[in-house]
Design a protein that fits this description.
Structural class of chain B: mainly beta
Largest interface: A-B, 22 and 25 residues
Distance between the termini of chain A: 41 Å
Structural class of chain A: mainly beta
Order of helices and strands of chain A: EEEEEEEEEEEE
Distance between the termini of chain B: 37 Å
Radius of gyration of chain B: 13 Å
Helix content of chain B: under 10%
Largest sheet of chain A: 6 strands, mixed
Oligomer: heterodimer
Mean pLDDT of chain B: 93
Shape of chain B: globular
Radius of gyration of chain A: 14 Å
Low-confidence stretches of chain B: none
Strand content of chain B: over 45%
Order of helices and strands of chain B: EEEEEEEEEEE
Number of helices of chain A: 0
Number of helices of chain B: 0
Number of strands of chain A: 12
Mean pLDDT of chain A: 93
């Protein structure tokens, strides 16, 4: 069965510094997708970045990058130049299968990031 | 990307009553997903709703407690039945959007007193 593990319940980072949020996963399906979401205190789920299992390069989206190490089954999120507005809960999630609209997402337990001025 | 309108945004309900949460999508989607997020916890999938058939429930969730309707390709409801304080959570609906992954509704914050 698929599983997502986030081992950091909480993280602190100084404003303007980079921070890495860890995520490991387990699946027997060779085709899968990995996602990161941000959830501020308002409760909405904001999509940040996506990595497909067959993607050759690590995904990047602005200040967000995904450090994808397939052999180690890890998909760490790197946030560069942290901003106060980055303070939120961050969830790693996985979808098994090749992206059909019927595939469900499974979430990790989340990491609460606090950016300090 | 898909836009989801979810309502109510929050409610306070008496134990023993039921609440129906609605999600309206601005485009036709095959599946809609319903999640529960208990206080301080992650998102747990309740069920997957396909138009024209019964929803598929995850382990630990039953239709009598969380009946779901999916009358068409743009709309779904989740009912939380016979509520107890343990049902106090955020409930979110979601659809798969190939361009941006999965889009979520803004959530329903439910407090049962």
């Amino acid at each position: 069965a698929q599983k997502i593990t986030q081992t950091q319940p909480g993280m602190f980072v100084q404003e303007k510094e980079a921070v890495t949020l860890d995520c490991t996963y387990d699946t027997s399906d060779p085709s899968y997708g990995l996602f990161w979401y941000k959830q501020p205190s308002s409760g909405e789920m904001i999509f940040l970045i996506y990595q497909g299992s067959y993607d050759q390069q690590n995904a990047t989206e602005g200040r967000y990058s995904l450090n994808f190490q397939k052999a180690r089954k890890s998909a760490n999120l790197v946030i560069s130049a942290s901003q106060l507005g980055d303070s939120a809960m961050y969830f790693c999630a996985m979808r098994e299968g090749n992206g059909g609209a019927t595939n469900k997402l499974i979430f990790g337990t989340g990491t609460l990031l606090a950016v300090q001025p | 990307s898909a836009v989801i309108s979810q309502k109510p945004s929050r409610d306070i309900c008496q134990r023993g009553t039921s609440l129906t949460i609605q999600c309206q999508v601005d485009s036709q989607v095959t599946m809609m997903f319903w999640y529960r997020q208990q206080p301080g916890q992650s998102l747990t999938l309740i069920a997957t709703a396909n138009q024209g058939s019964e929803a598929t429930y995850e382990s630990g969730f039953v239709i009598d407690k969380f009946p779901i309707s999916r009358p068409n390709l743009t709309f779904s409801t989740l009912t939380v039945s016979n509520m107890s304080p343990e049902d106090s959570s955020i409930y979110l609906c979601s659809v798969a959007d190939r361009a941006l992954g999965y889009t979520f509704g803004s959530g329903t914050r439910l407090t049962v007193v």
